[in-house]
Design a protein that fits this description.
Largest sheet: 5 strands, antiparallel
Number of strands: 9
Helix content: 25-40%
Radius of gyration: 30 Å
Order of helices and strands: HHHEEEEEHHHEEEE
Number of helices: 6
């Protein structure tokens, strides 16, 4: 029975839950955390209201080198005891990992990165088309022997070209070159803030919001073993 197995799993970890709650509460109540958080948000941090470790906990192990998990965000879990959705992922590292295996928080979610890359690729294609158009117009200009000065002299009193068109080769080139400058800006991928990596160390507790993008970097030293769980963290004065 799957429900029985889940209950057995929950019971296996009951003894550790109050210890984790105490450690997390101490960490969040520390002066260092409050000063850093206030500096970043420029607002006074409301008091910590609740710390709850959900009962469903499990061990995960990377037993061979090159074990990794690509960029992702974590799903929310509904607490069986309160019916409230979890807010944070909790990792408790059980082994020391000398090389590799870091859990790294990333500056943006994978979907946003892929979207920026796709937009940059589209801009590169558009820029290449504009360069080809500029080359064609320049070649036509050269073959016809028309120069910028010629275009200026050929203007009639109405400001039109003698052939009745309102755009000269010079004007066309200017528009194309202006568009190219604009498109080329969109091909650039602005640098992001560096990721924040946490090295697996026995006894280290690491927790972060579910919506925070992160990755498990490839293991080199093995095994990497950690306890995984979900938290409910609430702040407020009421």
């Amino acid at each position: 029975n799957d429900n029985d197995n889940d209950n057995d799993n929950d019971n296996d970890f009951q003894w550790i839950r109050p210890h984790l709650v105490h450690a997390i509460t101490q960490s969040l109540s520390s002066n260092e955390f409050n000063e850093e958080n206030q500096h970043e948000n420029q607002n006074e941090q409301p008091p910590l209201k609740e710390v709850r470790v959900l009962p469903y906990m499990r061990f995960l192990e990377y037993s061979t080198p090159n074990g990794s998990l690509g960029p992702h965000t974590d799903a929310l879990i509904r607490c069986k005891e309160t019916e409230v959705w979890s807010t944070h992922t909790l990792l408790v590292f059980c082994t020391d990992v000398d090389v590799g295996g870091e859990t790294a928080l990333l500056p943006e979610d994978p979907k946003s990165t892929r979207m920026r890359e796709r937009n940059a690729d589209k801009a590169r294609v558009a820029a290449e088309k504009l360069r080809s158009a500029i080359a064609r117009v320049t070649a036509d200009d050269t073959r016809s022997g028309t120069t910028t000065e010629d275009c200026a002299e050929d203007k009639n009193d109405n400001g039109d070209d003698d052939d009745g068109t309102t755009s000269s080769i010079t004007a066309r080139l200017h528009r194309l070159q202006t568009a190219l400058v604009s498109i080329e800006r969109r091909t650039l991928m602005p640098p992001l803030k560096p990721s924040f990596a946490v090295k697996p160390q026995r006894g280290r507790i690491f927790f972060f919001p579910h919506e925070c993008p992160h990755e498990g970097r490839p293991t080199v030293s093995v095994p990497k073993i950690f306890l995984r769980a979900e938290l409910i963290l609430k702040w407020g004065s009421t």
